[in-house]
Amino acid sequence: VRLPPLALALGAAVGLLSAPAAVRAGGGAFLTIQSDTVTLPGEQPVLVMVPEDDVARVEVRLVRGDGVVKTLTAQNIPGGSEKSFTWAQPEGRFEYAVTAKATFRDRTTWEGEDSYTITAATLLKGDIPVETVDPSARSFEIRTSRPASRVDVSVVGEDLSEVAKATVPLPGQKGTPQTVTWPETEARVFKVIARAYDEWGFWTEAEINLWSLEIPHEEVVFPTNSYQVLADEAPKLDRAYRLIDEAVVKYGDLVQVRLFIAGYTDTVGDPGSNQGLSENRARSIASYFRTKGFKFPIFFQGFGESVLAVPTDDGVDMHANRRALYVLAASFPGRTKDLPRANWKRLP
Q: Is the dihedral of CA 320, 324, 327, 333 positive or negative?
């Protein structure tokens, strides 16, 4: 992400590049830096010259802080027009001392000098893996394409106002995951915005949308070893769908809604079969909601007997463990006790 351009006046605005009276009567030229930051690859520093009168020849000498010298020249510049000077700069922040010397059409001369700083770098890129987001611990991991010096965290409540903020120093290295904790707040958190900065002020931003809504429902009773929704069980799903539809109407303008269906079994049967059965039942429920008209993305996942609502021994027929979760959310749910894995499959 590029920082906003900053124009730095080097001419008459600072009184350094106007012509000495003994050399040039009347005026000189105006120089300005197009931006003090340059995005690599592709961009170059740009120095713009606007002479007051016609220039026959101008020479601009740039001395970089590490000793590299660049000399740029131009001829026949009409008065009042813009002439751009560009040059290659490696990644990093460098100070320049600039000396400009011009000869005008009337053979008078003008010169001036100043200094400025330009930073050149590739775009800073960042990533927050969804599996690292832990709402209960108010934390996430962020990875950046080069070392970041800090992360500014903004916590946004359900009314879309900022309810908390913090600046978190990042001492890590390129690509190394850094754990960031957002401030505690009594407000219900809608989303967290994280903006990471590198040492030069380049930044990248990521948003964690924490909005989610669990839909209360009656559990569908499936026949033994079956994942078919029976006709007399369909009204349970119809009632749940009405709640889903109401939530979409209420929140659909604020978030990109997704529906997540998780399925679970008791411990009757072997774990492998129960894993497949729970996934197929979750898929059946997801498919039913699709046929009801849900137009947004639907994801499903089975957890088998690995997440028991009521802990039991093997082979125990427990109705409370034959269950499902219906969750509306703006992004993939973080890992929780009920959702310990993120192997979601999208329903076509």
A: positive
